[in-house]
Design brief:
Distance between the termini: 35 Å
Largest sheet: 11 strands, antiparallel
Helix content: 10-25%
Radius of gyration: 17 Å
CATH topology of the largest domain: Immunoglobulin-like
Number of helices: 5
Order of helices and strands: EHEEHEEEEEEEEHHH
CATH class of the largest domain: Mainly Beta
CATH architecture of the largest domain: Sandwich
Structural class: alpha+beta
Shape: globular
Length: 198
């Protein structure tokens, strides 16, 4: 779990994290500060402390990352809480990109994170929803946690019959494609601007 804020407040954010003994939990990336939170961290207190220094710009964040190898894969795609594609905060364009972090997404309300792990012919998929309400991070909601040996298309057909999950089908498809993308070096699920579309 990560939160992100603008880099203009870096010194103050690090000072706020220092009061929790977490000064080493943040890193700078593409003009933003990323703060990595663990399950046992006091997330609400950290969020409140960072909000005072980051003003209105504070987001829950996650990376689209990973890709496929010959026999295994581990891929993650990110969407809004309604399954919609988001505009990335930052995109990795330089350095080693194969199966690494490709695009950082953030939202003031929450994110859906789809993770696909393939080991041979077996695929394990988790869909997790992270929400922020009134500047409090709620406990992650595990929406899907399934392992299947059948072709992904058969499983998706079954998933579409569950009306509460059909909005996540596009991002799930993208995560499955990313898991099959050998040495993936690009983002698979994001909002496309009008300029890119023309």
């Amino acid at each position: 779990m990560q939160i992100v804020c603008r880099n203009t407040t870096e010194e103050r954010i690090r000072k706020a994290l220092g009061s929790f003994g977490l000064a080493d939990k943040s890193r700078s990336r593409a003009g933003h500060i990323l703060i990595e939170l663990c399950a046992d961290d006091p997330t609400d207190e950290i969020l409140h402390a960072c909000r005072k220094h980051a003003y209105a710009y504070l987001r829950v964040a996650a990376w689209e990352k990973g890709g496929g190898l010959e026999a295994t894969s581990d891929a993650t795609c990110v969407a809004g809480t309604e399954g919609q594609p988001l505009r990335p905060i930052a995109v990795t364009l330089k350095g080693e990109r194969a199966n690494q972090e490709h695009a950082l997404f953030g939202s003031r309300t929450g994110l859906v994170v789809v993770n696909v792990q393939r080991r041979g012919g077996t695929i394990n998929m988790t869909v997790t929803c992270h929400r922020i309400r009134e500047f409090k991070i709620e406990s992650p909601e595990l929406v899907v946690n399934e392992t299947f040996d059948c072709a992904p298309q058969e499983w998706l057909t079954d998933l579409q019959t569950r009306m509460d999950l059909d909005k996540y089908i596009p991002v799930i498809r993208s995560a499955l494609r990313k898991a099959e993308c050998t040495f993936c070096a690009h983002c698979h699920y994001r909002e496309i601007s009008e300029k890119e579309d023309t």
